[in-house]
Amino acid sequence: MSKVIVKEKERVLNVVGHPVNRVDALAKVTGTAKFTADYYVPNMLYAVVKHADIPHGYIKKIDTSEAEKVEGVVKIATGKDIPGVKKVGFPIPDEEVIVQEKVRYIGDVVAIVAAETLEAARKAAEKIKVEYDPLPVVLDPEEAMKEDAPKIHDSGNIITHFKIRKGDVEKGFKEADYVIEREYRTQFIEHSYLEPVAALAIPVGDMIEIYGTVQNPHNARRITSLTLGIPMHKVRVIQPALGGSFGGKDDTANFVAARAALMAKLTGRPVKMVYTREQDMRESYKRHPYIMRYKVGFTKDGRITAMEIKVITNAGAYSSSSPLVLYRSTVQCTGTYEVPNIKGDFYTVYTNTVFSGAMRGFGAPQINFAVESLMDEIAEILGMDPVEIRLKNAYKEGSVTPTGQVLKGHVVSIRDIIKKLAEIADWKKKREEYSKDKGDVRRGIGISCAFRGVSLGAEGADYAGAIVEVFEDGHISITSGISEMGQGAKTVMSQTAAEVLGVPIEYVTFVGPDTSFSPDSGPTVASRGTLMGCGAVKVAAEVVKERMAKYAAKLFNTTYENIVFENGYVYSKKNPENKISFPELAKKCYLDRVNLSAVGWFLAPEIHWDPETGEGEPYFTYTYYADIAEVEVNVKTGDVKVKKVYAMHDPGKVVNPKTAKGQVYGGVAMGIGYALKEEYKIDGKGYPITLNFDKYQIVRAHEMPDVEVYFLENPDPSGPFGAKSLGEPAFDTVAPAITNAIAHATGVRVRSLPATKDKILKLLKEKEERR
Ligand code: MOS
User: What is this structure's pTM?
Assistant: First the structure.
């Protein structure tokens, strides 16, 4: 079930806002969509990586003599074979396509084999012998912060330290009736995209063409160009169909593309590299584990007066997006609540574990777990309803965020959302009724809510480009650097072009991204695809539309402002008999040499944030949302069943209700996994334990609850048609709604994710013993 809550008079759009089918659905359901691994070209070699054998140490010697003897081996490359820049990565270039001197985790690549067959490449990779000078290993970020800890990079182990200083916390604690301290922790989790990372690199003259599982083809081009030491126009990256990403294909996947390109350059032949699930899970980055310590002061009536916060995140062996992920955690450190006095210190730290990076939510889900658990703990101490405490502190128009930003210029809808969702879920009644459960199976209901800064924020260059071209038959090709990963980007961008040009969506096809003709649009991350991609398409389509309107105006003897584009026809408002079909007009324009292609450029409003003081406007606008979860917990077994989830989002404007609903269902599925079962485990020495989906358990279909999705639309002045963000919000608050519901059902609170049966049972036992 789902519902878009919209004021009816606003519904004047013909394509945008309507539940159109995905434009890529046919190719996917008929199996004609090609994924990277589906591409075969003549004379192609297969490449396989050799991963590090130990988590920390200097490479003394790499012996490839036995490997060379394997029949079919064409080339074995080590770090010395890289012609270009040795250290790459964004924002801090500390990663290596093949490590030169030192391994820092068990997923480092020390050599690559290219061979005539996959079997030969695999066999040879196993025969490469590496001698190391082992170094002491540090896996715990707090240990890694100590002076005498083994140094993973020369720069020291603390990558970034951000601060928030707002008001006076000492004064705030004095004003409080209660001061409590809590620690919350979260785990490593895996993106679990269906399609493991892969790349096919083809030498074409002095160019390298790459098909790869890359979330951001322009980043893959950047890394490849640097690695090979060739200019960017000689690297062409084409994004085929992508089997999911969730933030997971914007780093490792670029390195895989660069490795295939390197082997193609060294051999002069096409090279294909497809990771196994185990190789992928060993090497690819995860969601950051967080340690979060909150000291919080509050009054008897539930007003928060101060927060002192310390957050430490495990970046693992390389920095990747860690500073940017930490940025989001820092500026959103109090959740969706106004806190007058804050002192916050936020660190991200190198260790010898797998590295951490971008993953759907990007530093918000961890903070939300802490803050939303904390709100329930405060409510419990005060004997207050969790909805009431949230309404007492939640942001409203004019509220001041931790960075001193005043929330204005958009509708601050969080209170509206909390109230409406609580009413829909029959919160009050269920909260009371479930509390009376006495048997083995106890019911619970929990809420959590959040706000989220839209797009990259002040830490990134926030732009996107698109090209719209109307062909002579009136059909339209569009492209952008904003990419499709399964989230529906092509569909919403196609809807946008169709909406502006007044044609059915069937007239539009999205092609690309292809770095040689799709404009670099920044990364498709940060729930910015719809906002920025549709923004750029809209600008480009409007340029073409204006040229066509001017031409039609001449035909109809009127001014171009009078020309209407609607349902595949173009007519004069003043005299609607003056009408021509869109394809006919396109044809006339061509014959009369009217330019029907245009580039659109969309910029986010300018903002600024100071990393020294933590002050400024980290994002130009925000989205608001809440989840309510109902669970059943068996107090004998610790078993948790999520029975129902209610979700309400304010994405500004829902461009496609069908795919938007899909985003929320997917977010709930991932959120349940994060809350209850998923954990990428590393043993005490730095070796991974969970390398495939036998040991790493994600949520299965039969574990999905009934999900009710509601959209509350408050169009944002900065977004196309008022659209903001949805992809990450759909996941951001699910886990704490579930853990809060578990606490309601059982009276015990799990403060470290995942809330496994073992943890629940242990807490229940301790509670029993205290009686
Ligand atoms: Mo994302 S986690 O911003 O790809």
Answer: 0.97
